[in-house]
Write a structure and sequence with these properties.
The protein is an alpha/beta fold. It is about 40% helix and about 20% strand. Helix 4 links the parallel strand 4 and strand 5.
């Protein structure tokens, strides 16, 4: 098994966030939950994540803005930022790319695809996995 990752889950629906966090933990990774953009940015400053799973429709700012601000934080290794959103059209994917988001996954995300993404990233593999 590859090394454990620090995963920051940015999701405003508590049930979804905590369920996803529990799943990520069962795969052997660390998971921290932030319910909005400001909390996500603060968590990232305190403990830089390896991976950010980022909802786009947050209550205080769009996930695109969170991604831009994450990219401005000066960490030794920037995190892999993955949009996990209901916005599946080409416009949403382009907006993600423009905001500096590395991958765009559409809800509901396949646990198999998400696990493969995390394990591949932990092993040093960077494959552009997209789920429709």
């Amino acid at each position: 098994m590859p090394d454990a990752l620090r995963v920051l889950l940015v999701e405003d629906e508590p049930d979804c966030a905590w369920s996803l966090a529990a799943l990520v933990r069962t795969w052997g990774h660390q998971a921290e939950v932030a319910g909005d953009g400001r909390a996500a940015l603060g968590a990232s400053w305190r403990r830089p994540p390896d991976v950010v799973l980022l909802d786009i429709g947050l209550p205080d700012m769009y996930g695109y803005e969170v991604a831009r601000r994450l990219r401005e934080q000066q960490h030794s290794r920037p995190p892999l930022v993955v949009a996990v959103t209901g916005r599946g059209g080409e416009e949403g994917r382009l907006a993600s790319r423009y905001a500096g988001i590395d991958l765009h996954m559409v809800k509901p995300v396949s646990p198999v695809a998400l696990r493969a993404l995390l394990e591949g990233y932990a092993a040093g593999v960077t494959a552009a996995l997209e789920q429709d």
